[in-house]
Amino acid sequence: MKAFIVRSLLILVSVVLLIQLWIFSSLVWWRTNPVDTTMMMRLDYWSTQSKPIQHEWRDYDQISDYMKHAVVAAEDGKFLQHNGFDWAGMQFAMERNKDKGKVVAGGSTISQQLAKNLFLYNKRSFMRKGQEAVATWMMERMWSKERILEVYLNSVEFGDHIYGVEAATQHYFGKSSRSLSREQAAFLAAILPNPKYYQDHRDDRKLRYRKGLILKYMRYSHIP
């Protein structure tokens, strides 16, 4: 029995170490190479293989600055100040969730969201949050803020099987992400909390309110 427990622990530790090595090697490769697919894209594709993933990589300077400002304003106002974790933001989110009796705020930074999109899955668990923290810690020390935002904009979900700002801009506006207007950028940033729902409910009251806030605070957001 003791030998079985020891063997099981060794197997578990080996699997955990292999996962960390996979994440580390992926981050090394993606420092200079485009991210063609993420774990979230794979899960989406496997769930509905008959529908192709819409995704096109665009370099940082090929994406409208309006979009960068809108996403930072909407998702992570302290993006340039923190090292991957906004502790004050997480505390505020926990207090809001406690007051409401349900999850109404996440508190995750752009870096944390990107780590989840690249390597993990949506289902909440302590194990997933722990691995997300490790991946975020590695990413923040291996990539520049510009690279993190560039990959985030190219991999975040904007609708059903729609990933990255270029595919989203083509889908919603029939144009390139380089030429996004301020209003269009605010709309795309506003749908991020629930893109598959807002894709078909573009006149939703909450969406319009969120877009208005983003337009208001875009000018104050700082980007790499």
Automatic annotation (TrEMBL):
It holds the Pfam family Transgly. SUPFAM superfamilies: Lysozyme-like. Peptidoglycan polymerase that catalyzes glycan chain elongation from lipid-linked precursors. It comes from Acinetobacter cumulans. This is Biosynthetic peptidoglycan transglycosylase. It catalyses: [GlcNAc-(1->4)-Mur2Ac(oyl-L-Ala-gamma-D-Glu-L-Lys-D-Ala-D-Ala)](n)-di-trans,octa-cis-undecaprenyl diphosphate + beta-D-GlcNAc-(1->4)-Mur2Ac(oyl-L-Ala-gamma-D-Glu-L-Lys-D-Ala-D-Ala)-di-trans,octa-cis-undecaprenyl diphosphate = [GlcNAc-(1->4)-Mur2Ac(oyl-L-Ala-gamma-D-Glu-L-Lys-D-Ala-D-Ala)](n+1)-di-trans,octa-cis-undecaprenyl diphosphate + di-trans,octa-cis-undecaprenyl diphosphate + H(+). The gene is mtgA. NCBIfam families: mono_pep_trsgly. Gene3D superfamilies: Biosynthetic peptidoglycan transglycosylase-like.
